[in-house]
Design brief:
The chain is an alpha+beta fold. Helices cover 19% and strands 35% of the residues.
Length: 298
């Protein structure tokens, strides 16, 4: 009987010291190339923590700076009210934003989506005062260019709007020339860009480079394609943008190709009353038509 008790006690001690079921370490899957998604974990308090946030760097915006005040957004200490009737939330660890309250300024830094859906926030790195001369010199030219685009962007008398046609800084003509020289048969479209965050895929020519810049202040998702490495905004002559408007709101139809001045834009309907625009200089019409017709769900 004594021997049996000793054996039972020994078994219990061994179980208490660890004999649990081993837990395998699960490695995180590789991310899609050229894109970082929004991963949210929880800290010890149970609050959501953003581990990896898509930021678009080296951008600037102009407007009037104010304290953030009462808002649905939980981020940012200040806001930038812009002429486009949009608001950009601001935060900074290096710049005293309070001293620019009420001033017309241009802010420089990196932008990312807010935790709440639909907002954008900038991590401000630099602020410059905007003088009256800049307002007078820039705005008339941009307005005239925009009016010209609106006049020319019509099909059968019905106006079709586009948010992806640049009003200034046209694409590098040398890059466009390189892209035009390519063969656009089916066999040449061997690459694909897929956004895990948005859930769509587009074909990319085998000789071209692409980069996703994530969400920007003007679009929900922004991708650029070019004949060489795309490093910063504006490097790629061919653009792919996701916008928050439904196609019927801008007067377009699914799969429609429309000429806006010297640019051509392809329109695709997307879920959630959103739409995708594929745009490029007129010389790349064939490429725009191909990509527009081959957009797929991821």
């Amino acid at each position: 009987m004594k021997k049996v008790s000793i054996a039972v006690m020994t078994t219990l001690l061994l179980a208490a010291c660890g004999g649990g079921v081993p837990v395998e370490k699960v490695e995180q899957q590789d991310r899609a190339p050229m894109e970082r998604s929004f991963d949210r974990a929880q800290d010890d308090t149970g609050d959501a923590v953003v581990d990896d946030i898509m930021e678009t760097g080296n951008v600037s915006y102009k407007g009037t700076l104010y304290p953030s005040g009462i808002s649905i957004y939980m981020q940012g200490t200040h806001r930038l009210d812009m002429d486009t009737n949009t608001v950009l939330l601001l935060e900074s660890e290096t710049v005293d934003l309070e001293k620019y309250t009420g001033d017309d300024v241009r802010v420089f830094g990196s932008v990312r989506p807010t935790v709440e859906e639909g907002g954008m926030i900038m991590r401000v790195e630099r602020v410059e005062m905007v003088g009256e001369e800049e307002e007078v010199e820039e705005e008339p030219e941009e307005l005239m260019e925009q009016e010209k685009m609106e006049e020319e962007a019509s099909v059968d008398g019905a106006e079709v709007r586009s948010s992806s046609v640049p009003s200034s800084n046209p694409p590098d003509s040398a890059k466009v020339a390189l892209m035009v020289e390519e063969d656009f048969t089916d066999a040449e479209w061997t690459q694909r860009y897929c956004s895990l965050h948005i859930g769509f895929c587009v074909p990319v020519h085998r000789n071209w480079w692409y980069k996703s810049f994530g969400a920007t202040t003007s679009s929900l998702w922004h991708v650029e394609v070019g004949p060489e490495a795309v490093e910063v905004l504006g490097d790629g002559p061919l653009l792919i943008n996701l916008f928050s408007d439904a196609l019927e709101e801008i007067g377009a139809e699914d799969g429609q190709i429309v000429t806006h001045g010297n640019f051509v834009v392809g329109y695709r309907e997307w879920s959630g009353d959103r739409h995708i625009e594929v745009s490029a200089p007129e010389e790349l019409r064939v490429a725009v038509e191909y990509i527009t017709s081959h957009i797929e769900e991821e």
